[in-house]
Amino acid sequence: MRWVAYLLILSSLLTFAPIAAQETAPSADDVLYVALVWHQHQPVYFKDPATGVYQRPWVRLHAAKDYLDMATTAAQYPDVHVTFNLSGSLIRQLEDIAAGTKDIYWTMAEIPADELSATDKRFLLERFFDTNRGIIARFPRYQELLVSRDSLGIDDALEAWTTQDFRDLQVLFNLAWTDPDFLAEEPLASLVAKQRDYAESDKRIIFDEHLRIVRQVLPTHAALQEAGQIEVTTTPFAHPILPLLVDSNLAAIAMPDAELPPRLIVGQDAVGQVNLASEIYETHFGRPPRGMWPAEGAVAQSVVQMFASADVEWIATDEGVLARSLPQVEDFTRDSNDTIQQADALYRPYTVIGGRGGRTRIIFRDRLLSDKIGFEYSGTPGEEAAADFINRLSDIQAQLIAEGATGPHLVTVLLDGENAWEFYENDGKDFLNALYRNLSEADHIRAVTPSEFLDMLDEAPRPIDDLWPGSWIDRSYSTWIGEAEENLAWDYLRRTREIFQRESRRLEGEALQRATELMYIAEGSDWFWWYGSDQNSGDDAAFDRQFRGYLALVYDALGVPAPDFVNIPIIPAAPIAPARAPSESFTPPQLDGIASGDEWDDATFYPLDDAVLEGLYYGLDGNRLYLRLDSTIEYDDSTTIGFYLNLPDDLDSNAYTRFEATGGEPILGFGAERLLEMTFEQGFPNLMVYTADGRGAWNFEGTFETALADGGTLEVSVPLNVISPAARGADRINLRAVLSVDENNVAIAPLAGPALITLPDEAVPNIVLNVTDISNDDHGPGSYTYPQDAVFVDGVYDITNFVVGSDETHIIFRLNFRGPVENVWNSPNGLSVQTVDIYIDVDGAARGERLLLPGRNAALTPGNAWDVAIWAEGWTPGIYVPGDDGLLELDVDPVIQTNPGQRRVTIRVPRTVLPGDPAAWSYAVTVASQEGFPSAGVWRIRDVLPVAEQWRIGGGVEGVANATRLMDVVNPNPDMQEALLSDFTPSDANIGDLSPDDFGQVAMFSAGE
Known about the structure:
The chain is α+β, with helices and mostly antiparallel strands.
């Protein structure tokens, strides 16, 4: 077995002796067990069939910076047992790289700097700063190059940079992606000390070291597992969302209002993914895996049997899944110290039984503790963060004692074990060493592996009868399915899988194995993770290309031509910003082909830096779309202009324009459903409408006489229902114009990306409340000032109007802001900067809650109480009701829609959540500053300091714990906000010890006022 030889390699790295299994604690109440599970995963990055080179470097670079170091760091603390989950796809790629396969970043760095082409140099300038800015700052020359690149811009840097500049960048990027401990040792220490003016020969030193490190990752883990220090587990091969392969409609259980793609049922693939991962694992570790982390913690009752059949002894998922799986627990709630109040229910394993009687055990991670390491502790000194972690474990133990719970109990902390360390000082070494040291020294806490803990149990864990279908995110599969892009990707996958089912019957042996594994890779969760607006990699289009590339490889492996749809980007090219934004008061121009006077001054305008096309305009009057295209040439009989549109309709789309050669990269950057085409007869345009057939052809629909041209100016008007029968308010349409001469494309506008058309919001129906809030009162209690970063534009927190209406299925809330509503951080729903809370009292103050959501530090005035709170923000919106043990989140999320052009936010809540008459309810509405890294106990809003900082509100008072964090409050009475928010006695007490009367107050209002 391979791992036996690896023990000799490991002995030069580690100084510990094999460790006996830890003994059971003398008393369940004396010791709290904690399982630290580091999940290491990378998708199977696309490997160019022509070159055999991976298109992304992250397996190699995370190996050089994280994988080996994480294991050897744990080995220094023999009393701390931890678990490393190595996904099947990661193991396979580590093996491939160890055998000599390279990635494109590697090959780009190997090119001698004096031989770089302009394309090569652009690649380096665009991609060789792909790391955290704090890491770059550790290398003075790297920081110098970053400042130069950013100040010059890429185009100018291409000309200004010297050969030495590019060579230094090639070296420093790869040094920066190496663990600091390796950088402190030879042969890399000399390169770090050199700082600049690197030679071509220096590159070989780095790549030899990277290859050495990659080759040690799997042997080191195997040896540590044999020594009893760690447990190594794995994930189904390509990291798929297993339940969605079993039945994609399982998503509807947690997402009843979501639109889902056509149903996919390929349970045999889910079984195959589990079995292939087990085979890969056993090849490297000499034994089957005892545990598995289902990708993204995505589980369902229907996947239990496949784990049991593969002899997997335990699986893991998130606390939110457990809350939905236990009838006796409505939800897990936390006190003001963030301690779970249902500790006995969470911190224990359970048994789940599959459909054929197979059993496995399941543990549930503490989400907050996991997120503390993954997202929050990076901003805290390592010793302080580690102490906080231990204190939180002590609080959990105290809670278990207070509940009278009998042990043993296991706190599971499970998170991504690689990406977080970029954001920590010194790659997280201070924190990890302090954490492991504190765990070693603690007499009441013992770090164990899940299998060690399960082995010490005297009886089988409690059963779960029906495992909730969900993941670690939002107790659902919403990150991977339900949005338009995600659904389209699932449809691409389904259509490919149907061809695979039919054509793979002809294959056998290695050919069948290759086609099957390519199909599995296309089923991986990573592609779907980056689709939609809920996640953003900064280069989502690259993942889109890889996904579609794997689909094309499936067809190639099957020996059948790939259909046209694999060439259509699922993620359309990013729209470019216009020089003049949309106006709410567009007046339709006179269509005469003459751009006279100011008739297009209210239109959205894109200036075009093109030798042929000069300007693109569009306007909307509610019923029609108006287009204008200016050219430097006169339109004649040889000219064709096509306006290609990407619509919200569920229609077939084409990848290519009418006169574009197929097979290459399409120029549109999106799939076009509709084509408005102009041909000319003696300068007079004929407007024809075409519909895509999904196979590359365009079906003629009709002719419209609503286009006129004069010289180089073309004006067009088309009814919106002709363009998009299903379009509605706030829908978005991508547009590109293509000018062709003699059926050859010669210009595209806009060149850098499509124009974006946002349709006007529909009117709110059946309005029962329309409140105007005073402008320029977005200063909380009167003294607050905005954070200093440029994204906090004047007026972004200033609500000017609040409307409540309804239709047959939803209660509708609409808010207007004085400042912009821009999605500066690419949130899923377009809301990045503001957080809006709506509190509703449906039955008077007889029951309900006065305190607002955590962190707002405000309460409703006496005599008021809310029954439902709607939390509208970018990433974690929700609907909450008061419960006996704290706030309870409902299974239905609000639907949030933003319209930047009209500075509006529209929120829809199903009537099933809010039954009754909205005209009879009372309301309170607040605005705060959205924050991704909040203080403890604060739900994602910014702190207030005495003096504003880049990311902090100013105008507060030092040492006052109960001051509000609200920026604006809707109130019909303009004089009440400042007085009420200031109506409290300053205190430095623990927030959890204060009553509603100890905070600033917020008044409710109703339709009758």
